[in-house]
Amino acid sequence: MLLEKAPWYAHIANYLVIGKVPSEWKAQDRKHFFTKIHAYYWEEPFLFKYCAYQIIRKCVPEEEQQGILSHCHENACEGHFASQKTAMKVLQSGFTWPSLFKDSHIMCRSCDRCQKLGKLTKRNQMPMNPILIVDLFDVWGIDFMGPFPMSFGNSYILVGVDYVSKWVEAIPCKHNDDRVVLKFLKENIFSRFGVPKAIISDGGTHFCNKPFEALLAKYGVKHKVATPYHPQTSGQVELANREIKNILMKVVITSRKDCMPPPVEVEYKAWWAIKRLNMDLIRDGEKRCLDLNEMEELRNDAYINSKVAKQRMKK
């Protein structure tokens, strides 16, 4: 005689119908169970759940999950999208279960057509490089951008980038000389993030001069000069320059005064910049709703992993 396996929501349904939980549960299991039970309700013969934004979805047993995923991924109208898009289509169809995002990821990775026709990511295309062990704000790259059309008396932008956290510091300036660089290092780098171990720059006269070298020698900072005509040596700051240039091209319209305040404020989501950004609020809300649904699954996985780790420590 074959015994039918109980669905994953059996304990939830039993509690909602008869008000009982398994007697072998410990206090921690009961506490975890009661923190999430309020999101479910039973309507014979189905269990429903209040998901993010109070959207009601049907809880699906194990034997139906694979068919729903296959339909939302491989159907003629679906298009073999990635795991996030497939999970979103399942949620939009009105279904949910605890391991939805994980199952969607596994299915997309095991899909034969997706593996044959999919493109390699940049991470897999590029060779692996050794990672240098440095701390936050230990290595900075600095460079000038410009000259630009003058705006509020400023023609240049001095950019500094931390190589570990990718944090960007940028200021507008009138000239690209050593006095601007020294002031930038003292006020924007040393006093805020501490003295770094090394600074990478190009071989321009504003970086290779006696006052600059004297300041670095005073604080024990190494100065590394990038190879001429090889911007990849200081690639991180060159990447930041490109991003800031792209932001300027989008923000500055007709008047040169549109360039101020400093363009780096776009990175901090300043209101004057958000008003000019091409942002779809509807799609942003849908992405946030999807992330909230995934966060609950990640929280449950973290609880299970923590429980397993504690059991191993007891042994």
UniProtKB/TrEMBL annotation:
Integrase catalytic domain location: 126-302
GO terms of biological process kind: DNA integration
MF terms in GO: nucleic acid binding
InterPro entries per UniProt: Gypsy_RT_Integrase-like, Integrase_cat-core, Integrase_H2C2, RNaseH-like_sf, RNaseH_sf
PROSITE patterns hit by this protein: INTEGRASE
Protein name: Pro-Pol polyprotein
Organism of this sequence: Vitis vinifera (Grape)
